Amino acid sequence: MSSAKLILNDKEFEFPVIVGSEQEVGIDLTSLRAKTGAITYDPGYGNTGACQSAITYIDGDQGILRYRGYPIEEIANNASFVETCYLLIYGELPNAQQLADFQHQLTYHTLIHEDMKKFFEGYPAKAHPMAIMASMVTSLSTYYEESDDPAVTKLNMIRLLAKAKTIAAFSYKKSIGQPYIYPRNDLSYTGDFLHMLFAVPAEPYQISPVLERALNLLLILHADHEQNCSTSTVRMVGSSRASLFASIGAGICALWGPLHGGANQEVIEMLEMIRADGGDYHKYMNLAKDKTSSFKLMGFGHRVYKNFDPRAKICKAITDEVLGALGIHDPLLEIAKNLEEIALSDSYFVERKLYPNVDFYSGIIYRAMGIPTNMFTVLFALGRMPGWIAHWQEMRGDSATKINRPRQVYTGAPERHYVPVAQR
Ligand code: ACO
Fold this sequence. Notes:
3 domains, 6 strands
């Protein structure tokens, strides 16, 4: 298959076809407007390929997710988050020396400029940590020079990965009024983050291996997901030649929405609401199906997965393990499992191919770890950082990249003429 034909107003037009490494077929419509005068109409971009990418492969019908070719299950069970970052950004798994060097760099760039602490002080105590995270990441561009020099960009990528966890932890400490805890160079990436989040100056903090492992796994599961809303935002903003920090600051804002990364917070709020209402999950299942209600089963459904989200399977499997190891019985887990069981056999959900997504169980694990609900999406942002960086880098290095500028089908008033106020 090398071309596709389109008939418009009885005229036939031919377009080249491109085939990806997993036999995905795309019709190259870059010449569509020039040849036909028409544009495509695809709200939500469900059928639009905006780029070619070698980072992540998803087959939503089969429930497959691969980072640089490696199945998510293998990465999640064997790799560290730092290894995953290296894989996504540089394209290959690191050897021992490369990993040690990368780890070293991520360890020695964790401090943020002392002046940036003043920014945190300016926010109200109730500020959402995602707002702080987005502003702080964008603000990095005011402290760390950016240029087209590849060495500078490479250093800024390391800075961003290293400082993101300091920013995330400081935003939490700010929200609970505790002193900021500085990073420690003898800890792993995830261990250091837990230390900055939970330690207090008065006593030593013991990092629980259960928490460290769970966090490592959750960050890996969120590390990339090809052209989702926030990653496409990063690519779109970056296509105007906006800087790495500015583009990823915009991506963090896109992630915040409840239909995207904000869903993990919404899932817990939904489960709490159901529990407070007597735990009648049947009532809420009916509400989710009722088209006159705005209630949705949060953590269910996905634009791409029309089969199980493979990340949700891994998350569900470790939820019992983590809660068991921590000796926690969470009634919300029971409600979640009951909702899932009903949904999987309910014709409404079956027909629409709605399955739990990664966020259905991740919030329950974060809760068990002692992480407050409004920090869940920040943890998602921390996990997604290597994916955003990899996509920004790929987009910048791709000679096919143009400033992103979609078209529209105009449906407003035809030309009309100005009438002075007195005559209207
Ligand atoms: N609860 C009830 N009904 C749902 C749900 C849900 N969670 N999700 C989709 N539907 C229904 C829609 O109402 C629609 O029904 P209809 O055909 O009768 O009109 C049908 O299923 C198709 O749904 P769309 O909204 O068209 O699917 P889309 O691909 O646009 O949306 C989305 C995907 C946004 C994820 C949606 O499923 C949703 O809102 N889910 C809840 C929020 C959520 O969990 N988001 C996290 C996504 S994963 C992530 O970002 C990490």
